[in-house]
Amino acid sequence: MSELTPSVALAQAERLKESVDRQSRWVIRFQLAYGTMAFAQVLTLALLGGRLGAIVSTAVWVPLIVGLSVYAARQPVAHRGMAVTHYVMMGTWATLYGLVLGIGVAFFPGDPAWWLAGAVLVALPGFVAACVTSRRVRA
Question: Using alpha carbons only, what angle is made at residue 73 by residues 69 and 76, rounded to the nearest 5 degrees?
Fold first, then answer.
């Protein structure tokens, strides 16, 4: 058995990090999917309007979120810092979603420009998180 020298240990650690990074790229796909879904959900809600918009957007959103959650739960590894990035993404999304819907329903119920801009704004946390993650895992 060979002796574990500092250079061997460092090489081994680097190989392990590269493996974790490679296997953590699923997080980027998750974040991009979440941003895309958030965009579509707000637009669906706004364009269909009222009760129909709420029903259709929820009927589409819930199974997609369940599917995305099952996908995430089945992944074997996540990079260091993933939880913090995820919580910041979700907290920012929830805040923006509440603001876009609250202000939109109260002041811009039929204004497509508001809802398109709001859908883009609500999608940004997922896309920004994907950019941050891609830098961390050297995607």
Answer: 145
Task: Find, among 74, 91, 98, 77, the residue nearest to 126 by Cα.
Answer: 91
- Amino acid at the residue 9: A
pTM, full prediction: 0.85
DSSP 65-81: HHHHHHHHHT-S---TT
H/E stretch holding 114 reads helix 112-136
Longest Cα–Cα distance of the chain, Å, equals 73
Residue 133's nearest CA partner among 95, 75, 94, 89 is: 89
Residuewise pLDDT in 10s, the chain (139 residues):
567 888 877 777 777 777 666 667 899 999 999 999 999 999 999 889 889 998 999 999 999 999 999 999 998 887 778 889 999 999 999 999 999 999 999 999 889 999 999 999 999 999 999 999 998 887 5
Nearest partner of 46 among 131, 128, 103, judged by Cα: 103
